[in-house]
Design goal:
- The chain is an alpha+beta fold.
- It has six helices and 14 strands.
- The strands form three sheets. A seven-stranded mixed sheet has the order 1-2-5-9-8-7-6, with helices on both faces.
- The termini are far apart.
- Bound molecules: biotin.
- Biotin binds next to helix 2, strand 3, strand 5, strand 8 and strand 9.
Length: 241
Protein backbone atom coordinates (compact mmCIF):
# COMPACT_ATOMS: atom_id res chain seq x y z
CA UNK A 1 0.00 0.00 0.00
CA UNK A 2 1.36 3.41 -0.90
CA UNK A 3 0.60 6.84 0.49
CA UNK A 4 0.61 9.17 -2.55
CA UNK A 5 -2.00 11.59 -1.14
CA UNK A 6 -0.13 12.01 2.14
CA UNK A 7 3.32 12.15 0.55
CA UNK A 8 2.18 14.91 -1.83
CA UNK A 9 1.33 17.28 1.00
CA UNK A 10 4.28 16.96 3.36
CA UNK A 11 7.85 18.27 3.04
CA UNK A 12 9.48 14.98 4.06
CA UNK A 13 7.97 11.50 4.03
CA UNK A 14 9.11 7.98 4.91
CA UNK A 15 7.07 4.78 4.60
CA UNK A 16 8.82 2.14 6.70
CA UNK A 17 8.25 -1.52 5.83
CA UNK A 18 8.69 -2.29 9.53
CA UNK A 19 9.75 -0.31 12.59
CA UNK A 20 9.65 -0.43 16.37
CA UNK A 21 7.80 2.90 16.68
CA UNK A 22 7.24 5.67 14.14
CA UNK A 23 7.40 8.16 17.03
CA UNK A 24 10.87 6.86 17.91
CA UNK A 25 12.01 7.15 14.29
CA UNK A 26 10.70 10.71 14.05
CA UNK A 27 12.37 11.58 17.36
CA UNK A 28 15.72 10.28 16.09
CA UNK A 29 15.38 12.31 12.89
CA UNK A 30 14.64 15.66 14.56
CA UNK A 31 15.24 18.40 13.44
CA UNK A 32 12.68 17.74 10.72
CA UNK A 33 10.73 20.22 8.60
CA UNK A 34 7.29 20.95 10.09
CA UNK A 35 4.67 18.39 9.05
CA UNK A 36 7.20 15.75 8.07
CA UNK A 37 5.46 12.38 8.23
CA UNK A 38 6.66 8.88 9.04
CA UNK A 39 4.30 5.95 8.43
CA UNK A 40 4.43 2.21 8.86
CA UNK A 41 1.96 -0.62 8.46
CA UNK A 42 4.10 -2.82 10.65
CA UNK A 43 4.96 -1.18 13.96
CA UNK A 44 6.33 -3.74 16.40
CA UNK A 45 6.66 -1.77 19.68
CA UNK A 46 4.05 0.98 19.41
CA UNK A 47 3.73 3.21 22.45
CA UNK A 48 0.42 4.39 23.86
CA UNK A 49 -0.63 7.03 26.36
CA UNK A 50 0.10 6.62 30.06
CA UNK A 51 2.91 4.12 29.46
CA UNK A 52 0.72 1.66 27.61
CA UNK A 53 1.51 -0.21 24.40
CA UNK A 54 -0.23 0.13 21.04
CA UNK A 55 -0.49 -3.36 19.62
CA UNK A 56 -1.22 -4.39 16.05
CA UNK A 57 -0.55 -7.27 13.72
CA UNK A 58 1.56 -6.55 10.62
CA UNK A 59 -0.51 -4.86 7.91
CA UNK A 60 -3.58 -4.34 10.08
CA UNK A 61 -2.93 -0.94 11.59
CA UNK A 62 -1.49 2.33 10.36
CA UNK A 63 1.12 4.09 12.49
CA UNK A 64 1.60 7.74 11.59
CA UNK A 65 3.94 10.25 13.21
CA UNK A 66 4.03 13.92 12.35
CA UNK A 67 6.63 16.48 13.44
CA UNK A 68 4.68 19.58 14.45
CA UNK A 69 5.91 23.11 13.90
CA UNK A 70 7.66 24.69 16.88
CA UNK A 71 6.32 27.76 18.66
CA UNK A 72 2.86 27.58 17.24
CA UNK A 73 0.16 29.38 19.17
CA UNK A 74 -1.93 26.42 20.23
CA UNK A 75 0.81 24.55 22.11
CA UNK A 76 -1.29 23.76 25.20
CA UNK A 77 -4.13 22.09 23.34
CA UNK A 78 -2.06 20.42 20.61
CA UNK A 79 -2.83 16.85 21.78
CA UNK A 80 -6.55 17.63 21.59
CA UNK A 81 -6.16 19.23 18.15
CA UNK A 82 -4.42 16.09 16.92
CA UNK A 83 -7.35 14.07 18.27
CA UNK A 84 -9.82 16.41 16.58
CA UNK A 85 -7.95 16.14 13.26
CA UNK A 86 -7.98 12.34 13.57
CA UNK A 87 -11.72 12.43 14.36
CA UNK A 88 -12.52 14.57 11.32
CA UNK A 89 -10.42 12.29 9.13
CA UNK A 90 -12.19 9.16 10.45
CA UNK A 91 -15.52 10.81 9.72
CA UNK A 92 -14.19 11.94 6.34
CA UNK A 93 -13.56 8.36 5.25
CA UNK A 94 -17.11 7.36 6.14
CA UNK A 95 -17.35 6.64 9.86
CA UNK A 96 -19.87 9.41 10.42
CA UNK A 97 -20.79 8.49 14.01
CA UNK A 98 -17.21 8.47 15.35
CA UNK A 99 -16.70 10.62 18.44
CA UNK A 100 -13.84 12.12 20.42
CA UNK A 101 -13.27 11.04 24.02
CA UNK A 102 -11.12 13.41 26.06
CA UNK A 103 -8.28 13.88 25.56
CA UNK A 104 -7.84 12.23 22.16
CA UNK A 105 -9.33 8.76 21.70
CA UNK A 106 -11.51 8.21 18.65
CA UNK A 107 -14.42 5.93 19.51
CA UNK A 108 -17.22 4.35 17.55
CA UNK A 109 -20.05 3.28 19.87
CA UNK A 110 -17.60 3.13 22.76
CA UNK A 111 -15.01 1.10 20.84
CA UNK A 112 -11.64 2.64 20.03
CA UNK A 113 -10.64 2.95 16.39
CA UNK A 114 -7.78 5.43 16.71
CA UNK A 115 -5.48 6.74 19.46
CA UNK A 116 -3.03 9.60 19.80
CA UNK A 117 0.29 9.92 21.63
CA UNK A 118 1.94 13.35 21.53
CA UNK A 119 5.52 13.45 22.78
CA UNK A 120 7.33 16.71 23.53
CA UNK A 121 11.09 16.48 22.94
CA UNK A 122 13.64 18.44 25.02
CA UNK A 123 14.14 20.70 21.98
CA UNK A 124 10.46 21.71 22.17
CA UNK A 125 9.46 19.83 19.02
CA UNK A 126 6.26 17.83 19.44
CA UNK A 127 5.91 14.50 17.67
CA UNK A 128 2.25 13.63 17.14
CA UNK A 129 1.75 9.88 16.83
CA UNK A 130 -1.56 8.49 15.66
CA UNK A 131 -2.56 4.85 15.30
CA UNK A 132 -5.55 3.73 13.22
CA UNK A 133 -6.96 0.20 13.39
CA UNK A 134 -7.53 -0.90 9.79
CA UNK A 135 -8.70 -4.47 10.38
CA UNK A 136 -8.28 -7.36 12.81
CA UNK A 137 -7.20 -10.84 11.81
CA UNK A 138 -8.46 -12.93 14.71
CA UNK A 139 -8.31 -11.29 18.10
CA UNK A 140 -8.59 -7.59 18.69
CA UNK A 141 -5.68 -5.99 20.58
CA UNK A 142 -7.95 -4.83 23.40
CA UNK A 143 -11.54 -5.79 24.14
CA UNK A 144 -13.20 -2.48 23.29
CA UNK A 145 -11.59 -1.88 19.90
CA UNK A 146 -12.97 -1.53 16.40
CA UNK A 147 -11.43 -1.10 12.97
CA UNK A 148 -12.07 0.77 9.73
CA UNK A 149 -12.97 -2.51 8.01
CA UNK A 150 -15.72 -3.11 10.58
CA UNK A 151 -17.17 0.38 10.09
CA UNK A 152 -16.91 1.06 6.35
CA UNK A 153 -18.13 -1.21 3.55
CA UNK A 154 -15.07 -0.95 1.31
CA UNK A 155 -12.16 0.22 3.44
CA UNK A 156 -9.29 -0.98 1.22
CA UNK A 157 -7.06 1.91 0.29
CA UNK A 158 -8.63 4.33 2.78
CA UNK A 159 -5.54 4.57 5.00
CA UNK A 160 -3.91 7.10 2.66
CA UNK A 161 -7.12 9.16 2.40
CA UNK A 162 -7.45 9.17 6.19
CA UNK A 163 -3.82 10.23 6.71
CA UNK A 164 -3.98 13.03 4.14
CA UNK A 165 -7.29 14.31 5.53
CA UNK A 166 -5.78 14.28 9.02
CA UNK A 167 -2.76 16.23 7.85
CA UNK A 168 -4.89 18.89 6.18
CA UNK A 169 -7.16 19.23 9.23
CA UNK A 170 -4.21 19.39 11.59
CA UNK A 171 -2.48 22.16 9.63
CA UNK A 172 -5.67 24.23 9.71
CA UNK A 173 -6.33 23.65 13.42
CA UNK A 174 -2.74 24.33 14.53
CA UNK A 175 -2.63 27.57 12.52
CA UNK A 176 -6.02 28.85 13.68
CA UNK A 177 -6.37 31.56 16.35
CA UNK A 178 -6.26 30.07 19.86
CA UNK A 179 -9.88 30.90 20.71
CA UNK A 180 -11.11 29.27 17.49
CA UNK A 181 -9.08 26.12 18.09
CA UNK A 182 -10.42 25.97 21.65
CA UNK A 183 -14.00 26.42 20.45
CA UNK A 184 -13.53 23.63 17.89
CA UNK A 185 -12.35 21.34 20.67
CA UNK A 186 -15.27 22.28 22.92
CA UNK A 187 -17.72 21.62 20.09
CA UNK A 188 -16.32 18.16 19.39
CA UNK A 189 -15.25 16.53 22.64
CA UNK A 190 -18.10 14.08 23.23
CA UNK A 191 -17.07 13.74 26.89
CA UNK A 192 -18.51 17.18 27.69
CA UNK A 193 -21.88 16.98 29.49
CA UNK A 194 -21.45 13.25 30.11
CA UNK A 195 -21.19 11.26 33.30
CA UNK A 196 -17.69 9.81 33.44
CA UNK A 197 -15.44 7.63 35.53
CA UNK A 198 -11.86 8.81 36.04
CA UNK A 199 -8.70 6.87 36.87
CA UNK A 200 -6.41 9.62 38.10
CA UNK A 201 -2.64 9.72 38.59
CA UNK A 202 -2.99 9.10 42.30
CA UNK A 203 -4.36 5.66 41.49
CA UNK A 204 -7.87 6.66 42.50
CA UNK A 205 -11.09 5.95 40.64
CA UNK A 206 -13.96 8.37 41.00
CA UNK A 207 -16.98 9.55 39.02
CA UNK A 208 -18.56 12.85 38.06
CA UNK A 209 -19.91 14.94 35.21
CA UNK A 210 -17.57 16.41 32.59
CA UNK A 211 -18.56 20.08 32.28
CA UNK A 212 -16.18 21.55 29.70
CA UNK A 213 -12.61 21.67 28.36
CA UNK A 214 -10.65 24.79 29.34
CA UNK A 215 -8.32 26.78 27.07
CA UNK A 216 -5.37 24.65 28.18
CA UNK A 217 -7.12 21.44 27.22
CA UNK A 218 -7.95 20.39 30.78
CA UNK A 219 -11.22 18.62 31.48
CA UNK A 220 -13.42 20.43 34.00
CA UNK A 221 -15.26 17.84 36.05
CA UNK A 222 -17.79 18.15 38.86
CA UNK A 223 -17.39 15.07 40.99
CA UNK A 224 -20.53 13.39 42.19
CA UNK A 225 -19.49 14.47 45.72
CA UNK A 226 -19.71 18.10 44.53
CA UNK A 227 -16.01 18.91 44.27
CA UNK A 228 -14.81 20.64 41.10
CA UNK A 229 -11.67 19.13 39.52
CA UNK A 230 -9.41 20.27 36.67
CA UNK A 231 -8.05 17.16 34.96
CA UNK A 232 -4.80 17.67 33.02
CA UNK A 233 -4.21 13.98 32.32
CA UNK A 234 -5.74 10.67 33.20
CA UNK A 235 -7.97 7.96 31.93
CA UNK A 236 -11.60 8.79 31.39
CA UNK A 237 -14.44 6.36 30.69
CA UNK A 238 -17.82 7.45 29.39
CA UNK A 239 -20.50 5.97 31.61
CA UNK A 240 -23.77 4.64 30.17
CA UNK A 241 -22.57 4.35 26.54
C1 LIG B 1 -3.14 5.53 22.81
O1 LIG B 1 -4.31 5.40 22.45
O2 LIG B 1 -2.76 5.17 23.94
C2 LIG B 1 -2.16 6.19 21.89
C3 LIG B 1 -1.73 5.25 20.79
C4 LIG B 1 -0.76 5.93 19.86
C5 LIG B 1 -0.18 4.97 18.85
C6 LIG B 1 0.63 5.69 17.81
S1 LIG B 1 0.97 4.66 16.41
C7 LIG B 1 2.07 5.87 15.80
C8 LIG B 1 2.85 6.40 16.98
N1 LIG B 1 3.99 5.59 17.31
C9 LIG B 1 3.89 5.05 18.52
O3 LIG B 1 4.76 4.31 19.05
N2 LIG B 1 2.74 5.40 19.09
C10 LIG B 1 1.97 6.27 18.23
Amino acid sequence: MGFPLLAAQVPFFIDLHSTNSTNSVATDLVPLPAYSAIVSMNQTSGRGRLGRTWLAEPGNSLALSIALPRQQTNQEIVPLLVGLAALRAVRGVGVSHAELKWPNDILVKGQKISGVLCEMLPTGTVIAGIGLNLRFADERPVARATSLAEQVADSDGLADSWASLLLAELRTLVASPAHEAHRAVQANVATINRPIEVDDFGGHRWAGTAEDVDSQGRLIVTRFDGESVLLAAGDVHHLYQ
